[in-house]
Automatic annotation (TrEMBL):
Source lineage: Bacteria, Bacillati, Actinomycetota, Actinomycetes, Geodermatophilales
Organism: Goekera deserti
Region (Disordered): 392-438
Keywords of this entry: ATP-binding, Hydrolase, Membrane, Nucleotide-binding, Signal, Transmembrane, Transmembrane helix, Transport
Span of the signal peptide: 1-43
InterPro entries (UniProt xref): AAA+_ATPase, AB_hydrolase_fold, ABC_transporter-like_ATP-bd, ABC_transporter-like_CS, Galactose-bd-like_sf, P-loop_NTPase, Xaa-Pro-like_dom, Xaa-Pro_dipept_C
Domain ABC transporter: 658-886
Gly residues bias (residue ranges): 399-410
GO MF terms held by the record: ATP binding; ATP hydrolysis activity; dipeptidyl-peptidase activity
Family label: Belongs to the ABC transporter superfamily.
Gene3D superfamilies: alpha/beta hydrolase (3.40.50.1820), Galactose-binding domain-like (2.60.120.260), P-loop containing nucleotide triphosphate hydrolases (3.40.50.300)
Protein name in the entry: Alpha/beta fold hydrolase
Transmembrane segments: 617-635
Amino acid sequence: MRHSRGTARPVPRARARGLLACLLAPLLAASSLVLLPAAPAAAAGEVATEETTVPSGTGPDAVELDTSLFVPDTATADDPAAAVVLAHGFGGSKDSVRSDAEHLADLGYVVLTYSARGFGASTGQIGLDDPRYEVADLSTLIDLLATRDDVLLDAPGDPRVGVSGASYGGALSLLGAAYDQRIDAIAPQITWNSLTTALFPSQGTATGSAATTVAGTPTTTAAGTGVFKRDWAGIFFAAGALNVQGLLGGLTGSAPPTIDPATATQTLTCGAFRPEVCAAYQSAASTGTLSPEVAAVLDRSSPASVIDRIQAPTLLIQGTRDSLFGLGEADANARGIAANGTPVKVVWYDGGHDSTASDSVTADLRDQVAGWFDHFLRGGPDPGTPFLYPQPAGAQNALGGGGGGGGGGGRQRDAGTVTADSYPGLTGDPAQRRVLPVGGGTQPVVTPAGGSPAAYTTIPALGAISAALGGTTIEIPGQFARFDTEPLDEGVDVVGATQVQLTVASTTGTATLFAKLYDVAEDGSQSLPSGLVAPVSLTGLSTDPTAPSTVTVTLPAIDHRFEAGHRVRLVVSSTDQAYALPADAAVYTVGVADPASALSVPQVQGEGEPVAGSSRWFVLLGVVLLLGLLGWLAARVWGRRRERQLSTADADGEDVPLRFEGVTKSYKDGFVAVRDLSFEVRRGQVLGLLGPNGAGKTTSLRMLMGLIRPTAGTISVFGHAARPGAPVLSRLGSFVEGTGLQPHLSGRDNLTLYWAATGRPPEDAHMAEAIEVAGLGSAIDKRVRSYSQGMRQRVAIAQAMLGLPDLLVLDEPTNGLDPPQIHAMREVLQSYARTGRTVIVSSHLLSEIEQTCSHVVVMAKGQKVAQGTVEEIIGTGGAVLVGLADPADTDRAVAVLEGLPGRPAVERTDEGLVVELGDVSRAAAIAALVAAGVGVDQLSPRRRLEDAFLSLVGESS
């Protein structure tokens, strides 16, 4: 049956009831949807997929929508199923949400995905979720579902249906629920409340009392106000403009498009956008201001304008790393929908438009959405409406930013989740707040003509990448005011939007400012949590610096822990490269109204819960102890069998702690990582494993530790086969491929927990010796998330040395250490070997291998190319340096050396004579010089280990 519909309208219903995509295609991730597991449901056996083109709209606005319908075999006319419509993010298509559709279909839902008009294979122009077009298309698709006998109906023409989507698709689900009352539940993610305030924000004021909720939404109340989010708007528009069908045909081999000169400007500059949307963007981009015409376009596509109509139970998922649609957008949606008496649940997660969520968080979000729909569409368990947010963590252990001034400071991925009873302010319980005093006084701030140069904070859509590439924000001297707290006596968790009252005067009566909270470490380095900035557009200001105006600024909502000893720094800048800036120069004076209570920071009390894949320490410890007990019982039961297996050992096993014999590791695709590797390491040696990237070093170490099995050959540790789980591996301590430390535990707790997992008595750990090796002093009792990379490295090495293992294996042990620490580590390893134990070090620092190790194995392309003492490797080929006791003997020495067999080449240098001995031994050369009466002060290899290494493996490797 073919359905078409024009303007979206409310549809009567029998009973009103109460994923992650970015803007650009390269940034699109599957809309994934936290932390309650999906409620049990009858799983589908087989899922059929129907590809259909669905007509929608009338007249010149008619389009063909490219759809995919996923129908589980459990959905039949006799047992119809609830349906879910999945909408994609801006720049995506129905394929962007396919994995989510398959997941929900496997849970027994009939799932409809489609490409929105102007995207993918669907026709039409982009209207930015215009109710007349995109929202009407959604109603058309719901009409289609209502005609199927395998879809459950609430009433004729009214299917049991939920809608979910991220970003562009998230706003569609909100608008759809407002215009079409047949929708029974929605799960919008990382989306907007007001597209106007999202693209023209001004956080000088905020909707909703920040004393009530945790994340006030920026407001723009009149045309001409707000600060244009220039970079994000440009990315947004470019993503739609690139959807011109055939525009790139000439580059792909198909016929180039024919463009009508009369419409060339529209086609080439507006792409797939509707003319009124294109005109709005061009106006904003050229003027940087919000005109009434632009506001009309944006307001029409904003859920804020119809939020009072939404009756469908709503799961709001918003990212903490999102400079496009911040946490305040979800705050406004939550307040507006809850005011209708509609159930609302708010979930924050570690990710957003600036940073893709981890795999485990993505899976949890997907299960959270499934659990929401299971209750409201199928009567499953009630997930409730608690407020979930990531466990706040400090900057130094953040991904995508850190103590070096990163623009993406945040938390360790999958650090855990906190559950509060409800989202503050929705049920009458206001957010809790703490006051932090600052110092700094009143300061002059200059805004340059044209806004250049401008401060740099983060790259839109690439926050984590920009932090990883540079990790540093740039504030222009003279263009900002700075206000610092004293070092914190204890950690402060900021969950939401901080407020501050500023005093501002301007020579022009207006001001454009950018406020942000930095986390300043003890060493003075600073990080900007999630790279978030609060733009503030102020008018009607005092022009008298002695009588400034007082304004309240709401900073972006963040989820961040300021550690004890750190400072909270408020920076108010006149520029930011991501926003449109005033053309005229001006001078502002900026201060805080009441320094003693300047910063009002929100805090939310809740119960900490681990994210999948991470655990709180006491849970992990309990599991470890249980596993230890089970391991002990298994050891007793199988002890005799193990003793028989261990009875066969090499006779020289105690003298040769490690032996590789013909070891090869190949993979199914034919790649050979290690080929016929043979070498042995004797007691008391410090052996360096050298080789370029891809030489097979790490693969060899992983086989040694029993993590992977060799394809051929044998590896013996103290004479016993080093197979996975072999008891002899308990004599081995290792640090390979990352520290593996739990960031929320102290260094001491990490060491204790690690040792508990071995099941061995605590007194055998030699904990004091390990802590002395770490050299952290009192820092050993601080949480690892506060450690620098070097500090974490030292704790990991101490962890490997717990129990004083007879064989110590370290992969790149000096990474993150400064020169004094490297020197100390060198002495530790050498003294450790002098006790009769053996050390193996894999490193790319040839100078450290040369100074630390007694023996070397050189690998290239999976094979051993040399083995021996460092001196032997250095002395293989090349030249020697001869130092003479009396420089007056130089001519006679040259004559003697050149007269040796093979006539060695001799070069005079300031250091002495450089001689290519060839086949002549060093002893023969010295004997010839002494016989000729030439005093020899020294004879040493001319080249370093680096020279030997390059000659052995080839510099091109």
